[in-house]
Amino acid sequence: MTGTDPFAVLDRIELRERVAAALQTFLNPDTTLLAPVGPEPTELLEAVRRFVLHGGKRIRPAFCFWGWRGAGGADCAAIVQAAASLELLHACALVHDDVMDASDLRRGRPAVHRDFAARHRDAVWRGTAETFGTAAAVLLGDLCLIWADVMLTTCELDDTALQRARPVYDEMRVELMAGQYLDLVEQSRGTGSLAAALRVARYKSAKYTIERPLHLGGTLAGARPELLDGYSRYGLPLGEAFQLRDDVLGVFGDPDLTGKPAGDDLREGKRTVLVAVALDRASPSQAALIERHLGDPGLADDGVAALQTVFEETGALAHAERLIDELLARALEALHRLPGTALDGEARDVLAELAVTVTARGR
Amino acid sequence: MTGTDPFAVLDRIELRERVAAALQTFLNPDTTLLAPVGPEPTELLEAVRRFVLHGGKRIRPAFCFWGWRGAGGADCAAIVQAAASLELLHACALVHDDVMDASDLRRGRPAVHRDFAARHRDAVWRGTAETFGTAAAVLLGDLCLIWADVMLTTCELDDTALQRARPVYDEMRVELMAGQYLDLVEQSRGTGSLAAALRVARYKSAKYTIERPLHLGGTLAGARPELLDGYSRYGLPLGEAFQLRDDVLGVFGDPDLTGKPAGDDLREGKRTVLVAVALDRASPSQAALIERHLGDPGLADDGVAALQTVFEETGALAHAERLIDELLARALEALHRLPGTALDGEARDVLAELAVTVTARGR
Fold first, then answer.
1. CB-based contact, A120 to chain B, within 8 Å
2. Cα separation of A295 and A188, whole Å?
3. Cβ neighbours, 10 Å, residue B145
4. Beta B105-106 vs B109-110: how paired, if at all?
5. Integer distance in angstroms from the first to the last C-alpha of chain A?
6. What are B156-159's contacts with CB under 8 Å, separation 24+?
7. Which of B33, B145, B153 is facing A145, going by the closest CB pair?
8. What is the pLDDT of residues B125-170, one digit of tens each?
9. Is the CA virtual torsion B183, B186, B190, B192 positive or negative?
10. Which residue in chain A is spatially nearest to B113 when comparing CA positions?
11. How many interface pairs between A and B have CB atoms less than 8 angstroms apart?
């Protein structure tokens, strides 16, 4: 850790590089079982490679890896492969999410469905390019969901460990999809209560990004229940803080850093905690402004700026920042309370740094 | 078997009823891991229940079950659960396929994305009903893909058996999605060669519907390689015959039996073997008629009838029927050649009857 790079902790023991190398090794026609099917589906494989190899902070693999180390597991290639498989699960979620939201950009590049629509257009094929792009992205996401599973179960950890971890993995996948549906329903209902926004954040992000990867790594290593409980006490508030930071960045973030246009969450009408707090505190004219602009797909820069001002003037932004600080403090406190006999020393240090990193303003 | 009901063999040992009961038991909030997430996602679960409990001939579970019995596995609840899980995998494929094709109907009811779009409209929610319907159907398909896996791995077969079968299961899932992509690309290219149509049929349907379910059941029971090879020699031609029958029904089928409007495959522009043969033998005016109508989303009844006439007059229909007969004969021949020491007697009889049933005209 250099002390100057805020993401250095994610690179500890070259983890990001090793995760990328594991994905690179796995994503070939043989291990993905595509070889016999012929040349066409390898276009999907190439697109997945571009998607997962260029970008991503590897946050979920990091929590999985350090959840394993914290439970006494030794550093080895097998756990890196298992941890890296979470990037494929995440790729499924993002690619399908971009289809559902009709997003144009992801990680600063065209979203997968747009990329395949462009290929259709270039080849001057039959039918509409949009239909082709959507269909290809749905199938590509399905393949990522399957490959995630294949990558996890073919890592060379022993079978008992893999069987022990399967229920955690299954819960994680179901929570992710169910959380996405909650989000969709909340966006459509547009009620915007704080309780609803917090429930979406919990299932769609908090558990899936931090608690479950920690549990997956921990369970693979045979962690005792007290450690898994400790991971929850640390991971749940931290996950909520992480999602809050994401909400703030979705409104105020720098497109160069987020890889998405500023205000995309506003155009999609996401019912975030930020929105819920702003609505709760808004004057009638501020509330009317939110209702008018939120979810408007054609929202321009001045509309985004007007909403930003409302989030600032209502104190919603300051409230979110305070909440992030409080949740982070709770996570760190839970970490400190875990007895040294339960949690390996290096993992403790790394988890403390990771907590600060994933909630940092410049993330 | 009554001798009058052509589907009686699918009901042998009440298999269809037991598959439905296994799905009914599995599809509850606890085993699907939805309980903690809250009430909303159970709407997805209810929709899956309606989808898999009302309809479906349970063809894939039948081949899985009899593949197990043929390898000497004893009839038990665990193998019925494992076999039934294939209906959830199939539900993922169908629900996502209907999104990709923008189909209105499935099994005589509104397709899942249309059903959720209607709920959105009834609730007078924000955003467009179509976007909501598509997003819900993508997530519902993802959940089915995950639940299929959960249902398979939580059946009470022993762990060694499940581990032995996992590579077969993974190949099957990847082939299914890759085959769907092949189909999509062929439809878009519109080249329509017979070789391409046969490759689509092989991956999208032949392997996934018959060979792989047999292998899954066989591998779970610890089948020897000679039996698995025999299953391939029987299952591959039979699967191609099954897909050919499907192609014929897609053009000439009775909507009351197929649950889809007549001519839907023509509107979608599917490049089937039937189309490839017709194009190969068509006069210039017949070829022009095919090119004009195939893939026209607004194709009316008279256009469907005109295409039907071309398939008849070119001899493509008769050729397809002959091909079905030949492939069926090859499958039955391969079955007869399997030594009695390799294949259990009752399974042999059932597989012979199943072959006739799944390729029958009135299917």
1. yes
2. 10
3. 27
4. antiparallel
5. 17
6. B156/B77, B156/B78, B156/B81, B157/B78, B157/B79, B157/B82, B157/B220, B159/A159, B159/A163
7. B145
8. 988 999 999 999 999 999 999 999 999 999 999 999 999 999 999 9
9. negative
10. A100
11. 168
The model's pTM:
0.94
Q: What residue in A sits closest to B121 (Cα-Cα)? A: A188
Across the interface, which of A32, A139, A178 has its CB nearest the CB of B180? A139
A182 touches chain B (CB under 8 A): yes
**DSSP single-letter state for residue A107:** T
Interface test with A, best of B45, B138, B202 (most A CBs within 10 A): B138
> How many C-beta neighbours within 10 Å does residue A247 have?
23
Helices (H), chain A: 8-11, 15-26, 42-53, 59-70, 77-101, 112-123, 129-153, 159-189, 194-201, 212-220, 225-252, 255-258, 264-267, 273-281, 284-293, 301-313, 316-337, 345-358
Q: How far apart are CA A212 and CA A7, in angstroms?
A: 21
Closest CA to B258 of B62, B108, B359: B108
pLDDT at A3 over 70: no
Q: Is A133 on the interface with B (CB under 8 A)?
A: no
Q: Which residues from B are below 8 Å from A143, CB to CB?
A: 174, 177-178
Structural tokens at position B2: 């009554």
- pLDDT tens, residue by residue, A279-330: 999 999 999 999 899 988 889 999 999 999 999 999 999 999 999 999 999 9
Quick check: helix, strand or coil at residue B45?
A: helix
| CA separation for the pair A242, A257 (Å, rounded) | 16
**Does A204 reach chain B within 8 Å, measured CB to CB?**
no
List the single residue in A134, A149, A188 with the smallest CB-CB distance to B149.
A149
Q: Could you tell me which residues come within 8 angstroms of residue A184 by beta carbon, excluding any fewer than 6 positions away?
A: A100, B132, B135, B136, B139
Question: Is B50 within 8 Å of chain A by CB?
Answer: no
